[in-house]
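Session log. Operator J.P. requested a structure for one protein chain; no other inputs attached. Running the standard single-chain path with token output.
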Amino acid sequence: MHTNILVVYKKNFEEVHDVALATIRDALDELVSENRVRVDYTARETVRRADFDGPDLVIVLGGDGTLTSIAHSVDDSTPIMGVNSHPRLSDSDGSYGFYMGSDPENFKSDIRTVMEGGGIINVLPRLQAEIVTTSGNKIRTDPALNDLLVANTHQYQPSKYTIHRSEDGNNGEIDASQQSSGCLFSTFLGQGAWFRHVANIEGTTFSLEEIDDHYLFVSRDLPRGDRKEDGSYWSWTNEPTLMTSDMHRGYVVADGWDEFHFTRGSTVSIDLDGPTLKLLTFRSTIYDRVTRWIKQ
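Structure written below.
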């Protein structure tokens, strides 16, 4: 039985990415010649959600931005393998590639490890929002591997909303009206992408038992006088956050990509009930890369 593989690659006409693609193609061509796999290739700029219906494995060649831009189209049963096409270890202008478990140098051995049933499967939680409009329509946003932003579409205007969250064991029930620059929600792993640049949580560590069912929340640029210690300014919680819009027009943005719009009176519920993502790594787990954030 063949393994169906979809390769999504970064195409920006830089030689380093073309060389990486040629290396990956050579390794996969060997498996094709052995009659073990079928492979389709598509550039990130032309990939469509329907392309992800059939593959047994999705390989993303690029950096973290390439992976997060297409991961929302990958379901919770299809493993995804990130290959850093321009590693920073070999070029200071390259990509750190936090989610990328492989690179061109190791790809040939890594893909054969996958074919033999090996590799480390990291099951990662993802944030997702549900918008309920005033007419009762429900819209599920794309799942977010890193973070979700809920804000006024006009960033020069304040985001006005009420926020509600049930008691979560660390904070009591929250029911507050706020004006801020919008609310940012982050998974445990996604906090390094943006959250730590918004909220000062340096030195904060999190329990290993909580990192798969808790998420981070902050009201961006909330006036200092309104920054309470009750979880309404920032929190680490496992309870859904419900926002009711008092904005003429707002949006939810998942991982900095597609926008989902709503109007005044709509409600937006955010939690970690999005489909999980099966991310393959090989020489360490994804959590081994952020042990400094985990309580020992």
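Operator note: Residues 147 and 255 are 5 Å apart (CA to CA).
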